[in-house]
Amino acid sequence: MGKFNFEAFLGSGGSYAPRISVRNTGALGVSQGVCRRLRIEDGDWYVVLMYDKGQSAIGLKFTQDAGAKGAVRLQKRGVPTAEGMLNWSGHVPARAFLDYWSIEYKNRKQRGYSPHFEDDNVVVVLLNEAQEADCDDQPEDVSGGEVVAQTKTPL
What we know:
Order of helices and strands: EEHEEEEEHEEE
Strand content: 25-35%
Shape: globular
Radius of gyration: 16 Å
Oligomer: single chain
Strand order of the largest sheet: 6-7-2-1-8
Number of domains: 1
Number of helices: 2
Largest sheet: 5 strands, antiparallel
Helix content: under 10%
């Protein structure tokens, strides 16, 4: 194609926008964008939940160490695309955590957050930065930050 070195985009039908949602079921939703950014599509992953009360911030430390103190299994799901790949997203059961810290989730619509990525697989959610009162785990495709190529996981 002449002077350009184009690469085909094969990730249609998915989302690259990282989002964490607080669901009214007491779970924390983890979007495809977060899974891609942290490269956690393969293997078993766990999350250690943390809270900074002074800043109203939830911390999620993603690890493959099932024995990590406080680790909760990340429930992942792969949704097949027309191209024969899987788009990964998931959730973390967090009702006890949310109840312990008195973080409201039961009587309101699901809230989505754009997380901050820290070192060592830690994702921070500032609860005062909710961007929408009614959202899902697959917002419109908006590129931002590092973009990781579509994972080619066969069905």
